[in-house]
Specification:
It is a single chain. The chain is α/β, with parallel strands linked by helices and about 400 residues long. About 35% of the residues lie in helices and about 15% in strands. The protein is built from 14 helices and eleven strands. The strands form two sheets. The protein has a nine-stranded mixed sheet, sandwiched between helices. Strands 5-6 form a two-stranded antiparallel sheet. α3 links the parallel β2 and β3.
């Protein structure tokens, strides 16, 4: 009898995994940009409340929590601060890709019946803390383990991205103007976003004539430093039916990790998004050609270019030509970072969760006038990709999202 019950339970669990779809049912930003009067905990709570209100679900329905980047025992401190007692939790921390990886974990847990409604939440006062002297700028993520062979010699985080960009230029003839054009188009997308920190239009000459930070990156090719937070709520389809907003379905996800030391990176022109993207598209059953809008981690302009290549929007080495002629703007062939991205809108630290918020808002048709993407037939976008990058291309997480 025990064996029969065990087999029946296993069959039931397998059926749940096969049939239970997962949707994003709520998204929200906290106050972002220049926020001098709030703590990171305040921003977590503000974003969580707003996401719950957006979803229309009760706080009591949340039985899963994912958070990273704050406190000694994240996400327990955040759960306690929010008054939640989850039975499923995740504190995976892989840099900027953290949130796409967490979302993939949460979707698997919901599909398997281990959770019903999972809250992903983040908040940071990185800019305010630096301004007030509560922290210093981090040139390196540490000097222990493999990093001991790089950090003492001034091999900063930005220098690693700069080296990779130079290698791409050497291998494929990518130009400074093409990198600069990414910053220009991203700022153009920010122009219609009232929440973006920087909105004034810029030109390629503005970018190239700016202060050199790490060759070949000038200041406007590097992400801004801001405060801010956001939250995303995922739920099983049975709970999504009770949500206030149309569901945005998780079609597929993929994750990948790569090197720590630059000496272990086989090819500076290939990021782990080449693997996470391939897995995500295969599992979603769609191709890059079907994507209507892309939200990509853009701490530096090179990240945007190489991620476009690695996700399959163009061939390796063709990213420079691909980003020209306004292709990445709201009305372009592939709108990318439609909120202004980390280069212009906000970048309070691990920005990957903001990518999911913007992707969902675009699919639901909720972006402000002037920056809402439409398909060529005039309809709202149907498929979006959000791809986060961690470290110096050390990790990647990619999600494919779709509306009905």
């Amino acid at each position: 009898m025990t064996a029969v019950r065990t087999a029946a339970h296993a069959a039931a669990r397998a059926a749940v995994r096969r049939t239970r779809r997962v949707a994003v049912v709520g998204v929200a930003l906290s106050d972002c940009g220049r926020v001098d009067s709030a703590t990171p905990y305040d921003l977590h709570a503000q974003a969580a409340r707003r996401a719950l209100a957006d979803s229309g679900l009760a706080r009591a329905s949340v039985d899963g929590l994912a958070s990273a980047g704050l406190g000694t025992l994240a996400p327990m401190e955040i759960a306690d601060h929010l008054g939640l007692r989850p039975t499923w939790a995740d504190s995976t921390s892989v840099g900027g890709a953290t949130w796409e990886v967490m979302a993939a974990h949460a979707a698997d847990a919901i599909a398997a019946g281990h959770a019903n409604v999972v809250l992903l939440v983040y908040g940071s006062t990185a800019r305010a803390d630096l301004k007030a002297g509560r922290r210093t700028a981090a040139l390196s993520l540490g000097a222990r383990g493999p990093l001991q062979f790089e950090a003492p010699y001034g091999h900063t985080l930005i220098a690693k991205y700069a080296m990779a960009a130079r290698r791409h230029m050497h291998e494929y003839g990518t130009t400074l103007q093409q990198f600069a054009d990414i910053a220009v188009q991203t700022r153009a997308n920010a122009f219609h976003n009232p929440h973006a920190m920087y909105r004034d239009p810029i030109t390629v000459d503005d970018v190239l004539d700016g202060p050199l930070i790490a060759d070949p990156f000038t200041k406007l090719q590097c992400c801004i430093r801001s405060d801010g937070g956001c939250a995303v709520l995922l739920a099983g389809e049975d709970h999504a039916a009770d949500a206030a907003r149309p569901p945005v379905w998780v079609l597929g996800a993929g994750t990948a990790v790569s090197h720590t030391a630059m000496s272990e990176w086989e090819d500076f022109t290939v990021s782990p998004a080449a693997r996470s993207g391939r897995l995500a598209f295969e599992r979603a059953g769609v191709t890059p050609a079907e994507v209507d809008v892309a939200e990509l981690y853009d701490a530096f302009t090179y990240m945007t270019l190489v991620t476009l290549e690695d996700l399959g929007f163009c061939a390796k080495g063709e990213g420079g030509a691909f980003v020209e002629h306004g292709r990445l703007t709201i009305g372009g062939g592939l709108p990318v970072n439609t909120d202004g991205g980390g280069l212009s809108a906000c970048h309070p630290g691990m920005r990957g969760l903001f990518l999911l918020v913007e992707a969902v808002r675009q699919l639901r048709g909720e972006a402000e006038a002037g920056r809402q993407v439409h398909r060529r037939d005039g309809e709202l976008p149907r498929i979006a990709v959000a791809s986060g990058t961690g470290g110096w291309f050390c990790s990647a997480g990619t999600l494919i999202l779709a509306r009905d």
